[in-house]
Amino acid sequence: MEKQPNMLIHEKSPYLLQHAWNPVDWHPWGEEAFRKARETGRPIFLSSGYSTCHWCHVMEHESFEDAETAAFLNRHFVPVKLDREEHPDVDHLYMLFVQATTGRGGWPMSVWMTPDLKPFFGGSYFPDTERWGVPSFRSVLEHLADLWERDRPRLLASAGSIMDQLAGFARPETAAGEVTDRHANACLAALERGFDAEWGGFGGAPKFPRPAVLSFLFSHAAATGNRHALDMALFTLRKMAAGGIHDQLGIAGLGSGGFARYSTDRFWRVPHFEKMLYDNAQLAASYLQAYQASGEELFADTARDIFNYVLCDMTSPEGAFWSAEDADSLDPAGTGEKREGAFYLWTEREIAGLLDDEETALFGAACGIRREGNAPADPHGEFTGKNILFRAAPDDELAEAFGIPVETIRQRLDNARKKLFEAREKRPRPGLDDKILTSWNGLMISALAKGSLLLGDQKLLEAAKRAARFILDTLYDSESGHLLRRYRDGEAAIKGKAADYACLILGLLDLYSASFEAEWLRTAIRLAETQIERFFDEEAGVFYSTAADDHSVPLRMIEDNDSAEPSANSVSALNYLRLAAITGREEWRTVAQRTIRHFSHALDANPSALPLLLVARQIASAPPAQIIFAGKRGDPALAKLVATAFRHNRPELTVIYADETCEELLPEAAAIGRMHKEEPAAYLCAGGSCQPAIRDQESLDAALGSLK
Q1: Which superkingdom is the protein from (predicted)?
Q2: What was the pLDDT predicted at 694?
């Protein structure tokens, strides 16, 4: 019998399309599925994941491709597939339920719920046969189908009670105190307790990059002079750059490089090989902060490597940025099977066959190559005889060991890397999730704009502008001020979430700082006004994740954690402080301050939950400081003054361009602009007064260095 697609065939999400030919009668999340559940009286089975999720692929192969399991699922449930990256608010709601009832979470997320969307049972990955103490998916289906038929009233009552509890979690707190130095110190203390002094990072395996934590450490160090905070951040970033989590084969102008999602071990050696845009965007910003704080070229080079990866391998023809590359790819040996990390792994023999003897010895010592394989942890036996590239020894140690100059070491390693890169390019590539998400693009636009200033690379600024123009042309309605979340295959769809507004505003403000083009500031202001109208709770002083008129989720939630992606509330607090400083609109400072205060109780309970919000709090409590630059845009002398300002790690510093074209937005700056049509100048305003015009880099550097 010829296979027939299910309803997912009409979707645009790569994740949903991966399941379009399953024998499961999948429906996308939406009213049609809900109506079918109500009409048939069947419960809904929700499976949530994303296209580059390894265990999502495993569960699909084991259970969703199995005809008997699919037939049972279709007969007793209404199966619904959700791309968590398209609908993070829906995923967040039900993940909260799974974590509360099982003590753990993760994807694929599996939730059974009533036809009116109230959950009664959940988990994550269920195997096809019972193992690791986890029941089989089929046994769970049979048990729940039996309960639904025999004991439905109890399930309905339980689901109603659970939904009431979730509604309680979603309800914003109204009484909040101040967020103070006490919270920042408690966050630092919690991070110090979890810090791995030998390998960097926080906690044990698995280790996740958490750039919001690094931003807090850099901010805290800049504000207080705490050297240990700075050292923890720098040490972690050095260890990550040397680890297998960092693709060591990035070749400038050709591609690859960048960072994988997380490390399965404490050494940053064995990654979960998927690469996400949001990780690389935030890590690029973290490495730029490290470069600001230390001046070490390692950090600048690592940021360049991330940008090279994104611009070569993750950029759409239109200039926007794709979402992710998969952990799995076809076995290069031609078995026809997909394996995790297959694209990235090497045998000693493969390397020796591509390099000459001297290169093989040097590269082997540099990257820890072993005949038996070099993975320190291999729980599923996938890496036997395989090597994950990492930096086992730095260039200076190799120079001493091999008795040749450091520069020669670098040249030979570059040659070896290029040979391996060219060979790897002939392998089957990991799957690409080519949807374009507004929030993740905003993070990348921000990082590129900052990179253009700190690295002096104009092409990074042009890439940021091109991506921003695509997002604004395709996913933004300038009349209403509304954003959409996702673009793929010619379709812009899904109402924008708070994160889309917050992250795009962040990107546009950084574009303004890097380019001094007023159009980016104007759009950021328009989006900020719209975000308050659609997401802000005036009574509680906090942003919901979902707009008031978006009915795609049963409960509007509030993001209260800076995890893999920063909370929309943290990013928004930073944005509104910055907009208030630029425009003088004090009502926006009030929005930011109320947002920060809203989370005082959450920070009492978990001081390290919102490190980026604590960065905003530090900026809000610091004396205002701004630089107004004047002169002809594009003048090299002005560019040098701007670059000098951005070398300083001062999160509270606001940059404004004295441009006559934005008279209606910044009248005072426009007045200064009219006075300086020729020689560039910088006006530093801090501590309630403005210094006279500064016209050279040395004087500006000294003035910024003297700020308290």
Answers
A1: Bacteria
A2: 87
Within 10 Å of residue 265's Cβ, how many Cβ atoms? Answer: 21
Band (pLDDT 50/70/90 cuts) for residue 175 is low
Interatomic CA distance for residues 480 and 26, integer angstroms = 34
pLDDT score recorded for residue 697: 87
Could you say which DSSP state residue 134 is in? B
Q: Indicate the fold that domain 7-170 takes in CATH.
A: Glutaredoxin (3.40.30)
d(CA 234, CA 38) in angstroms, rounded, equals: 55
**Nearest-CA neighbor of 515 among 452, 578, 438, 582?**
452
Calpha distance 631→629 (Å, rounded): 7
The mean-pLDDT minimum among 110-114, 254-258, 623-627, 689-693 falls in 689-693
Half-sphere exposure of 530 (CA within 13 A, CB side): 27
In 489-554, where do the E strands start and end? 491-495, 536-537, 542-543
Q: Which token pair is 420? A: 């391996």
Where does the pLDDT of residue 642 fall: very low under 50, low under 70, confident under 90, or very high at 90 and above? confident
The CATH number of the domain covering residues in 627-705:
3.40.30
Distances (CA, A) of 638 to 55, 75, 458: 52, 69, 14
Domain residue ranges of the chain, discontinuous segments joined by +: 7-170, 181-187+204-327+433-622, 344-426, 627-705
Contact assessment for residue 402 and residue 362, using Cβ atoms and an 8 Å cutoff = yes
- CATH 1.50.10.10 given to domain 181-187+204-327+433-622: yes
Per-residue pLDDT tens digits for 532-563: 999 999 999 999 999 999 998 999 999 999 99
Site of tokens 């993975």: 375
Among 166, 32, 40, 177, CA closest to 101: 166
- What one-character-per-residue DSSP string does 455-504 give? TT-HHHHHHHHHHHHHHHHHHEETTTTEEEEEEETTEEEEEPPHHHHHHH
